[in-house]
Amino acid sequence: GEREGEEPCLFAGCVIYFDGRTGQHSSLHLSKLVMLYGGVCSVTLSKRKVTHVVCENLSGSKTNKALNHFGPLHYVRPDWITDSILRGKRLRED
Predict the structure, then answer these.
(1) So what's the pLDDT on residue 40?
(2) 24-30, long-range: CB < 8 A, 24+ apart
(3) 33 to each of 21, 23, 25, 55, how far by Cα in Å?
(4) Residue 34: which of 26, 24, 23, 45 has the closest Cα?
(5) 18 — phi, psi (to 5°)?
(6) Three-state secondary structure along the chain?
(7) How many C-beta atoms lie closer than 10 Å to residue 76's C-beta?
(8) Strand order across the beta sheet in which 40-42 lies
(9) Rounded distance, CA 66 to CA 53, Å?
(10) Contacts of 3 (CB under 8 A, 6+ apart)
(11) What pLDDT is attached to residue 88?
């Protein structure tokens, strides 16, 4: 598209799944941001593809319990997306 090269690819290589509530920002808004900055959003929780699960309440994530044995999956709050964009770099997930 015509926006190519304008935004840094902060989320290149990230496949992000939104699990439940995402707080003050809608998951639709956040997913548009992720894609604008080079990431991919997944509508289903495909354990082979998804790298990040975004949810407001990390301890209450249904996904967390279901997926723990599938290997490295980052659980992040919605702020991880917006803060990364504000700082112009992908923040650590912890």
Answers:
(1) 96
(2) 24/78, 25/78, 25/81, 25/82, 27/54, 30/54, 30/78, 30/81, 30/82
(3) 17, 15, 11, 16
(4) 26
(5) -95, 120
(6) CCCCCCCCCCCCCCEEEECCCCCCCCHHHHHHHHHHCCCEEECCCCCCCCCEEECCCHHHCHHHHHHHHHCCCEEECHHHHHHHHHHCCCCCCC
(7) 20
(8) 40-42, 15-18, 52-54, 74-76
(9) 12
(10) 36
(11) 95
16 phi, psi to nearest 5 deg = -115, 130
- ∠ CA 65-55-34, nearest 5°, is 125
Cβ neighbours of 9 (radius 10 Å)? 13
32-74: per-residue pLDDT in tens? 999 999 999 998 887 778 999 999 887 666 655 555 555 678 9
Q: Supply the Cα-derived Rg of the chain in whole angstroms.
A: 13
In this structure, are residues 49 and 15 in contact, taking their beta carbons and an 8 Å threshold?
A: yes
- The pLDDT value given to residue 1: 45
First to last CA, the chain: 33
